[in-house]
Amino acid sequence: MSRNSDIGPDGRLPDDLVSSYREHGFVRVRGVLGPGQADRFRAAAEAYLDTHRGDSLEKGGTFSQLVNVWQPDETLRDLTFDRRLGRIAEQLAGFPLRLWHDQMLVKEPHSNTATEFHQDRPYWPHADDRLPLSAWIALVDVPPERGCMTFLPGTQDRSGLRAQDLHDADDLFAADPELRWIPRVTVPLRAGDCTFHSGYTAHMALPNSTDLARLAHVVIYMDADTVFSGDPHPVTDSLGLVKGARLDGDAFPRPWA
User: Fold this and answer.
1) What pLDDT is attached to residue 150?
2) What is 101-137 written as a DSSP string?
3) Domains of the chain by residue range
4) What is the spatial distance between Cα 211 and Cα 215, in angstroms, rounded to a whole number?
5) pTM of the full structure
6) Superfamily (CATH H level) for 15-228
């Protein structure tokens, strides 16, 4: 595992990485977790997956998606609530953020299925918000053959598209044909590395053809002033929210503030 880190002694990223994120809609940050931390959180993720695999929101078999793992699991809460992650996210965004939700994204060994190009934001019941962003933390080494992500740079400005089908390789390009011709950037990660990407940045994840599960922990941040759009979503369906209600309180905390 690489022991290099892009995070400075003050807990901030250098200006060139911030500028790269704002230009391209994503950035790789090395060494978010040290080796001992990555091992601790990987072990916690494996244990959680063993007992909650059946709770996955993704039913298509492409990957396992376990949402809001911070609520039942104290160790994974430590990762989701990590102050450095939250403060870096706010540095990249340029405005205050709240936790929207976290999730474990797991591709089992030899799953051999891609998660096709899509944007995240069209799935979310958000309104009156500025750009959300996600921290995608590798808990194991994720080379291309284990299912790392590929991004379409600059697509963070392509708002207004419908939600896309994660199982259809052409669905995003049917929604916006120009996106097919944007040069693609694949970003392999060492365990403990992270990518931050905007909720509108189009991306996909390659298949896992290896003998090891791809374990990623994702922390999704939203504009602190985001309000509920009224659309259905597993995170909000049980909360009894009224359209226009602000997404705040205990369900959407700011532990890094």
Assistant:
1) 98
2) EEEEEEE-TT----EEEE-SGGGS-EES----EEEEE
3) 15-228
4) 13
5) 0.96
6) q2cbj1_9rhob like domain (2.60.120.620)
